[in-house]
Amino acid sequence: MTQQLAIIVLVDVGTALTSKTLDGNTYLFDNMQFHGSTGEGTGELVTAINGSYWQDGSQGTEEVLNWLPYSLGSIPPTLPRGYHAERSRQSDERALADLRALAEKPLAGAEAANEVNRIHRGVGHRVKATGRAHGATGHKLLDVTGAIVTDIGSDTHSYPGPVITDIRGQAVDEKIMYPSEYGSPDLVTDGWYWSATVDTSRPGTYSYTMQIQLHDLVQEGGEWHWEPVTMTCESQLRIITEPRRNGFTKAGMGVLPIAVPAPQA
Amino acid sequence: MNQQVNIVVVVDVIGALSDGTLRNGNVMMVDDGTLDSTGQGTPDLCTVVQPGQVVQWSALAVDLQTPVEIRNITFLGAEGNGSNGSTPSASADGEKLDLETWTGVVPGYLAPGVAQKYRLELRMHEGEHSLLQIDSPALMCP
Q1: What pLDDT score was predicted for residue B85?
Q2: Contact of A52 with A241, CB cutoff 8 Å
Q3: Three-state secondary structure call for residue A134
Q4: CA dist., res. A258 & res. B50, Å (int)
Q5: Which of A32, A248, A250, A264 to mutate to test the interface with B (most CBs of B within 10 A)?
């Protein structure tokens, strides 16, 4: 088959960080339900890989898998790369304009202090990052609508998207698939993606483990940081292989089925 | 002369399913024959072949994550009428088209210079709108 398979790993990042596990907080999808994948949209996805072999027993098709991690509760990765920086800059400009307006207003001490506090809250919080917190490094904390988060304790905020950092386990150990991380021109995936070729010559069900990095918001020495948190989630490949056959004859190769011309009278 | 001629059907699956047609630039066909085939890069490819040569068809998707398989190839005869009906039969789920290879030997009785048109049926994913066909490509002996 020439079609490549995509496996979407959708993570409820906030809940996964709170409950410290990806179990029950990961939703897996692939584009092969019509070829027999099961558990679509759950954490129990079994990806069907239908291989084939030639008459001499050699592998007839090569399968390629691509993994794409997505986040529930994050600013969409499809926004321009500069979105976070732009929103941070806009909020600084707004605060400066508000301060300028305040300076021109004759306000009493207490009133002026309240106003300054309001402007200060509206500035939001810059968050530093270690690890690979996509698009959020050094910028202000935003919510999923792109608004500046003013009160970290009570407001909900957007998380950096999940990052796959390794794929391993039975399917890799037994050389059923050969996963690797590749550079990509697609910045939706942060310029990287995991892909694998699959050996379809050994049918069976094989498990594998994805190591996924999430980022939790923590305060340290008065500063907010995105701290990388590594978790793992399991999935499975179910490989079958069947003999290839000729579409015209449903068996071996023959003469093309073109009608013999009728004899001229 | 090569013993085998390969015909590759390149399909923009999303375009074809959106338009409901394999025309409008959604299919282009090319072959690697050494004779003077015409219509390369179009759905009107006429592949010039010699008797005894092996012809192999394969389908490729422009977007590698979209599914496309050849479902059937039917030669339409001299009058251009297929032995089958003109609309593709309903797609049967569970057809394992990915296992099929479309290969055959050019028979010795083809009249030179007469284009043998064929109906190419493609299946993209499954369901009632998944089958589309064209009647325009052909094989021809020089």
Answers
A1: 39
A2: yes
A3: coil
A4: 14
A5: A248
Q: Which helix (H) or strand (E) holds A83?
A: helix A83-104
Asked if the Cβ–Cβ distance from B98 to A1 is below 8 Å, we say: yes
CATH class, range A5-74+159-243: mainly beta
Closest Cβ opposite residue B75 in set A245, A246, A256: A256
How high is the pLDDT of residue A127? 87
Residue B140: CA atoms inside 13 Å, Cβ hemisphere, count? 19
Q: What is the pTM for the complete model shown?
A: 0.84
Nearest of A244, A258, A2, A245 to residue B119 by alpha carbon: A258
Q: A-chain residues within 8 Å CB-CB of B98? A: 1, 35, 50, 52, 61
Q: Do B139 and A258 touch (CB under 8 A)?
A: yes
ipTM: 0.88
B4-140 is classed in which CATH architecture? Sandwich (2.60)
CA distance B138 to B142: 13
Answer whether A258 sits within 8 Å of B61, measured CB to CB.
Answer: no
Return the closest-CA partner of residue B88 out of B103, B67, B72: B72
